[in-house]
Amino acid sequence: MISKQFISRLGRQSQRMSARWQSTSPFAAYEMAPLDPIIGLNEEFQRDDFPQKVIVGVGAYRDDAGKPYVLPCVREAEQRLVEQKLDMEYSGIAGDQKFVDLSLKFGYGEDSSALKEGRIQGVQALSGTGGLRVFGELIRRHGQKHIYVPNPTWGNHIPIFQNSGLEVRKYRYYDASNSSLDFDGMIKDIQDIPAGSCVLLHACAHNPTGMDPTLEQWKQLSELFKKKQLFPFFDAAYQGFASGDAILDAASLRMFVDDGHLLGTIQSFSKNFGLYGHRVGTLSVVGSNADEAARVVSQMKMVIRPMYSNPPRHGARIVSTILDDPKLKSDFYEQCKGMANRINTMRTKLRDELEAVGSTRNWDHIVKQIGMFAYSGLNKEQVMEMRAKHHLYCTADGRISMAGVTTNNVSYIANAMHDVSK
Ligand code: KET
C-alpha cells in the first residue's frame, strides 16, 4: 500500500526538481496578451470599485433595471425540456437537424422556394463567431484568398478571418463627418472588387454603426453583386433587433435569395433569443441545387470534426422548442420586439438628456441609428477620458451599447458624454 508519508516525500522531491527546472519553462517567453477590445472591457469594469460605474460595452441586452434578461419564452421552453428528461448523447457533427431546419425557416422565410427546393442547407454552429470561423476555413480550403468586410465592422470579424488564413480587405461603409451610411463610397468600392470574391454584409443592425442600407439600396447592391459576380455572405446576428420585427429584419437576405444569388449566411441566436452563453447559431449556404448544398455541408463537417467535434445541445433545443410551437413562437416575436422598443426609447432619452445637460452638438444620429449600438462619434481620447473621470466604459471607437442604457443611468451617461465633448 502507498502510505501518506511516501506521497508527501514524493511531493517534496518534485518541488525541489521543479525549482531547478523553472528557468527552462516552456512558457517563459509568453507575453501577457492585451485585453479583448470588447469582452475585455468587462474585466476592467470588474476591477473598478467606483459605486456609480457604468458599462455599455459588449452588446448584451439588459432590462431597465440593468439586469441580464432571460426571455420568458426561453424559460418556458427550458421547463418543457427538463420535464422531457432528454438524453445527453453527442449531437451529430452538423448538430441538431430539427434546430437547423427551424433556424433556416426563421432566417430565409417559411415559404422560401429555395428552401423548399432543398438548395439551402446548413449546420448548427457555435453561435455567430463559430459559424464565421468555420465559414472562413471552408472558403479558404476551396480557393478563396481574401474576404471583403465593411469599414468599420464588428472588430472580431478581422481576426476570425485572418485566423482562417484569409486576407481581410475593406470596402467603404460609413461617413463619419455626417454620421451616415456612405452609400456612394460603398458602391464605388464594391464595383472594384474582383469577380468571385466573397463580400461580407451585415444583414441588419450594422455593428458598430447602426446604419443599414434602405430596401432600395439593398436592391441596388443585389444588382451590383450580380453584375460583378460577387459572392455574398450575410452575418445575421441581430435578426429582430433592428426593427423589432424578426421577419422585416430578414428582408435583405431574403431579397438576395429571391434575386437568385448563391450565398452563405451565419445566424446567431445570442441577441434575439438572449442565449449568449449557450452559443447557438447556424451556418448555411444557398447552392444552385440540393446536391451542391449537400456537398458544401459535407465539407463544413470536415472542418468541424477536427475543430470541436460537434456543437452543444441545450441551447439548440431551446430555440427549436420555441420555433416549433405556435404559442412560444408568437411569445418570442413579442418579447424580441419588447427588447427593441426599450432600446429605441433609450435612444430618444439619451439624445434628449444630452440636450438637457446643455450639449450643443447634434446627437440626432443616436435616434436615427438602429439595433443595439449607438456609434456616438466620440473619439478614443474622449472615450478614455470618460473611463478615467466618469467610470463609464464603452469601446474605444465610441460605440455605446444602447442595451445597457436604462432610465436610471441615462442622465449619468449623457453628463459624461457632454463633459468630454463640450
Ligand atoms: N456578428 C456580429 C456582427 C456581432 O456583432 C457579433 C457579436 C457576432 C457576430 C457574434 O456573436 P455570437 O455571440 O458569437 O453569436 N457582437 C457582440 C459580442 C461580441 O463582441 O462577442 C458585440 O459586438 O458586442
TrEMBL record:
It is an enzyme of class 2 (transferase). CDD domains: AAT_like. Keywords: Aminotransferase, Pyridoxal phosphate, Transferase. InterPro entries: Aminotransferase_I/II_large, Asp_trans, NHTrfase_class1_PyrdxlP-BS, PyrdxlP-dep_Trfase, PyrdxlP-dep_Trfase_major, PyrdxlP-dep_Trfase_small. Its EC number is 2.6.1.1. GO terms for biological process: amino acid metabolic process. One of its GO terms (molecular function) is pyridoxal phosphate binding. One of its GO terms (cellular component) is mitochondrion. The keyword Transferase applies. It comes from the Eukaryota. Its cofactor is pyridoxal 5'-phosphate. SUPFAM superfamilies: PLP-dependent transferases. Residues 53-416 form the Aminotransferase class I/classII large domain. It catalyses: L-aspartate + 2-oxoglutarate = oxaloacetate + L-glutamate. Belongs to the class-I pyridoxal-phosphate-dependent aminotransferase family. In eukaryotes there are cytoplasmic, mitochondrial and chloroplastic isozymes. Homodimer. This is Aspartate aminotransferase.
